[in-house]
Amino acid sequence: MYQISVVNRTSCIADREMHRVARAINRQIAEDFEPYWAFGGRLRVEGPVGPNTDLTQLKELRGDAILYVLDSAASNDVLGYHDQNLAGIPYGFVYLDLCKILGEEWPTTLSHEALELIGDPQCNLLVQGADPNDNNRTVYHFFEMCDAVQAQTYVIDGVTVSNFVLPHYFTPGEEEGARNDFCGTDLKSFGVSSGGYIGYFDPAKGQYSQFFANDALARQRLDAKTGGLGRVVRRSSMQNEPASRKFQLAGRFAATAAKGVDVNTLPGDPIRHVIVLMMENRSFDHMLGALQASNPDIDGVDPQKPGVNLDAKKDNAPHKQTPTAAQFVSKDFKVPHEFENVTRQIADGMAHFVDEFRHENATAPAAEADQVMAYFKDGDLPALHALAKSFTVCDRWFSSMPGPTWPNRLFVHSGTSLGDVLMPDGVIDTVRMFFGRYTQRTIYDELNDKSISWKIYHGGVPQSIVLSRLKRLYFTDSFQEMDAFFDNCKGAESDFPAYSFIEPRYFDGLHGDENDQHSPTGVMAGETLIADVYNAIRANQALWESTLLVVTYDEHGGFYDHVVPPATVAPDENTDNFSFNQLGVRVPAVLVSPWVAKGVDHTLYDHTSVLRYVCEKWGLSPICHRTASAAGEHKSGTFASSVSQPKPRTDTPERISTCAQSSLMAQNQKGTPSTFHDAQTALVSYAELVRQERERTTGRLAATRPGLAMRGNGKTAPVSVSARAKAIEKWFAQERGSARPAIIAAPISVQPVISMSMPGKKMTSGGQHKPRPKAKGRIGTSRSGRS
Predict the structure, then answer these.
(1) pTM to 2 decimal places
(2) What is the pLDDT of residues 179-193, one digit of tens each?
(3) What is the pLDDT of residue 145?
(4) Residue 28 gets which letter from DSSP?
(5) Burial zone of 101 (CB within 10 Å; 0-12 exposed, 13-18 middle, 19+ buried)
(6) CB-based burial of residue 10 (10 Å sphere; 0-12 exposed, 13-18 middle, 19+ buried)?
């Protein structure tokens, strides 16, 4: 008789209770299942009991298959052990936490998994039948006992067990009086009952698919399985198995990857393309807070109880949240948000944003301090507000750490800043300390390992090149400028990358004006970028119906938000400068897709949530502690459950415009700062170091030292950052072999000599001394509060 060993590794199910449930399921198999199917099996409770028992005892199990019952998918430590020590023995999991989420009793799930292990232990049986979407076509259905009827149950000896299909279910046509399932529902041959779904292989298309008849409950269950959670039989990977076991997979639905089918067509998941657009330096209240008035479910600004900060240096003058945010404040508007600034801003319940502004802007007018607290009126941001009203607002999305741009952007690409809480100012030798520092693996390495396509689209010099693994790829097709993005959106949906990250223009340059919305730059150019990205995706129906667009911001930029950042866990062991146990200030985030609802998602997210969603979606390894099981309750949220619509919505805007009536448009200001701020200068300097490195490695001598330019007399001299920015953009374009407009000649202006040394730091001749910056101010000779 086929024996299934049941291993109870939960902390809450007593051994006696497990035996009671197993006896009931054994009755189900012997009295209900076997008489119809002429084969059966038996559960045997054995092996270690409890979550902390010795896994080596599993070798003593003698069953033909094993079912592990665990507290949580997050606590699963047996999969790797099983693959290494019990390879070839079919197995499955029952997770108590997922049973609870799906509203199911765990005995029902155990019954479901037991019957399916008995029916198809090697997960390699297919049955010819009608295509559920077209009865005139033939496909091959998975030989599953319970999936089609998994929402129906019955009771044996006080134990709720799963319904199951009968042999007639796998035959074409209907016979009067014949039953297709044990409970006798109206289930049709090769059909699904409410809450159920079926899987099948389409030989004509060469791909696997799922059918759930637009049933939301079935979709929820399927999402749990394809996410690597819930009621899923995780079988050993087919990639290491002989040809005779080609359908045995780690989770039946992973078959697409192992078969060489496009991983973007994983059954049951309509999202084949994930696009992340990350803007710059604005807080949630500042940008989306006004929308609470039209949707009280959004945790935004309450006009009756606005947030207040006192100006300690101006007789504690109060500054309240008011809907008076300006699209462009002034050319020299400086809002501090370095690590030390942010830790003080959020102290005492978010009470010191104005104090920090005043600390570095002692003579600034009160109107500028008001702008730190101000928020945009409903409709002032026509693109962002249109998306927020039409799709899903995430009102608990926080920056990954309380600090500036570089560390937070490192998190969205790699899940860590390697312990850094600072970023360099623009002095070239300060930037050199960071050059080549960030060697960690990125999400793009994980995607490459699975042969999943990706691109980084950018509007000029991409900040992501500060990551060494991405810097090496900049001169490949993995990096494309924004015109390529818009062209790709017009092409075939199947040719579009699975994962895309969009970087805005961080400064005025060869490719146009700055549009990242980083203060003091105005917001309207960024609004145009947001609208253009949405409109390009929306115009291609096939791409639109297979895409999730995530619009978010790297950090708050010093602007006020009323929600205190919550606790988290460190992404890795680099905690010398900061424990990384607290998130940064809340930032705007909107999930955009025809598969998401119009409304609000209150799940706790940070930038590593992008990584978790991508890793779980495509079966990648967790990239940092926050996305791994060990994080427990502090594990970064995943927005997979927000992709919840049974079919693509048809009420989404076909196009959004920034030409709508907006009080900001009347300001008629381009919104250009008077000078480059430190973050811009640092990126220009980094790009110049990239040029220097590339010219050396290709056997060419750099014409000038980074930060300098040739004068008419053959000598070098410092030039304006604006001229350097245009020059480096031109060189990047030429090096990539791209035809670009001719650069506008900029006059060389000799400026004061820049100090090439730092107090307390001894630079070697090669500039390779890279001490880990301590968490106190920006690294460099100046601190303008920009990042």
Answers:
(1) 0.65
(2) 899 999 989 999 998
(3) 94
(4) I
(5) middle
(6) buried
| C-alpha atoms less than 13 angstroms from C-alpha of 731 in its C-beta half-sphere | 19
DSSP string, 746-775: ------PPPP--BTTB---TTS---PPPPS
> How far apart, in Å, are the Cα atoms of 221 and each of 33, 103, 686?
24, 10, 48
Read off the tokens for 379. Answer: 């409709």
- First CA to last CA across the chain, in angstroms? 68
Coil, strand or helix at 138? strand
- Widest Cα–Cα separation across the chain: 100
Q: How many CB atoms are located within 10 Å of the residue 163 CB?
A: 26
b/e per residue, 363-400, with b = 16+ CB within 10 A?
Answer: ebeeebbbbbbbbbbbbbbbbbbbbbbbbbbbbbbbbb
Residue 711's SS3 state is: coil
Q: Which residue has the tokens 């959106």?
A: 489
Residue with tokens 């001749």: 765
Half-sphere exposure of 564 (CA within 13 A, CB side): 8
How many whole angstroms separate alpha carbon 707 and alpha carbon 725?
Answer: 10
The dihedral over CA atoms of 253, 258, 259, 264, expressed in degrees to the nearest 10, equals 60
Helix ranges (H only) for 339-404 are 339-345, 347-350, 353-360, 366-373, 382-390
The pair of three-digit structure tokens given for residue 443, joined into one six-digit string: 């999400």
Q: How far is CA 202 from CA 53, 134, 243, in A?
A: 44, 12, 19
**Is 154 within 8 Å of 161 (Cβ atoms)?**
yes
Structure tokens at 175: 């016979």
Q: How many alpha carbons fall within 13 Å on the CB side of residue 219?
A: 15
Rounded-to-integer distance, Cα 249 and Cα 232, Å: 11
* C-alpha span between 86 and 106 (Å, rounded): 25
Tokens representing residue 182 in the block: 């044990």
- Burial environment of residue 298 by CB neighbours within 10 A (0 to 12, 13 to 18, 19 or more): buried
Contact criterion met (CB below 8 Å) for 752 and 707: no
Considering only CA atoms, which of 557, 609, 564 is closest in space to residue 582? 564
Domains of the chain in start order, with CATH, are 3-119 (3.40.50), 126-268 (no CATH), 275-667 (3.40.720.10), 678-735 (no CATH)
DSSP letters, 678-706, are HHHHHHHHHHHHHHHHHHHHTT---SS-T
**CA nearest neighbour of 685 among 709, 706, 658:** 706
The alpha carbon torsion through 609, 612, 614, 616 (nearest 10 deg) reads -150
756: Cβ–Cβ under 8 A, 6 or more apart, which residues?
427, 428, 429, 763
Which residue is listed with tokens 């670009």?
Answer: 740
Residue 247 φ/ψ, nearest 5 degrees: -100, 5
Question: Which region among 374-383, 509-518, 606-615 has the lowest average model confidence (pLDDT)?
Answer: 509-518
The per-residue pLDDT for range 421-476, each reduced to its tens digit, is: 999 988 888 899 999 999 999 999 999 999 999 999 999 899 999 999 999 999 99
Residue 46 tokens, joined: 């054995």
| Mean pLDDT of all residues belonging to the chain | 81
